[in-house]
Amino acid sequence: MTAQMHVPSLLSRAGAVSALTLAAVGGTLAAPGAAPEAQAATAHASKALSVAVAKKGAPYKYGAVGPNRFDCSGLTLYAYKQAGKTLPRTAQQQYNKTRHISASSRQKGDLVFFHSGGRVYHVGIYAGSGKIWHSPKTGSWVKLDKIWTSKVLYGRVR
After folding, report:
1. Is-catalytic flag, 122?
2. What single DSSP character describes residue 34?
């Protein structure tokens, strides 16, 4: 048996074990089955989503990357930057940089890319329940909208 396999019995006998004790025996504080990278990605995505929500009502401006005005990819770039991640400038470049995932794998905070003719033209942050936070167009503002087409792709920021 390895030291890590003894952690559950150590926990049951001792009741509570410090993080240092777990580290000393090769244990982990991660949820069972969760990889540390997945936990970090989820934390960044949650933070980015919160930043986007906080920008509700900020006006759209083509080419703007915040903090008070945004275009679509400017909002996602800004939100993820606040969460400690770097994204390229345009929606297409952001799609190219993300890990592509299926619709069934999407989670809150993932990026939603709208495409036509092999070209990505819009991006938003998935909010759950088929909705995104985005900065859609001139005369509009950062808001929550229902995904209006099936021509979307999903990406997870690494």
Report:
1. yes
2. -
SS3 label, residue 78:
helix
Burial class (CB in 10 A: 0-12, 13-18, 19+), 104: exposed
Q: Is the dihedral of CA 133, 136, 139, 145 positive or negative?
A: negative
Name the β-bridge partners of 1.
none
Whether 115 is a known active-site residue: answer no
Which residue out of 44, 100, 115, 134 is catalytically annotated?
Answer: 134
Q: Name the least confident of 13-17, 71-75, 114-118.
A: 13-17
Q: What is the pLDDT of residues 25-42, one digit of tens each?
A: 333 344 444 445 556 668
Parallel, antiparallel, or unpaired: how do β-strands 152-156 and 111-116 relate?
A: antiparallel
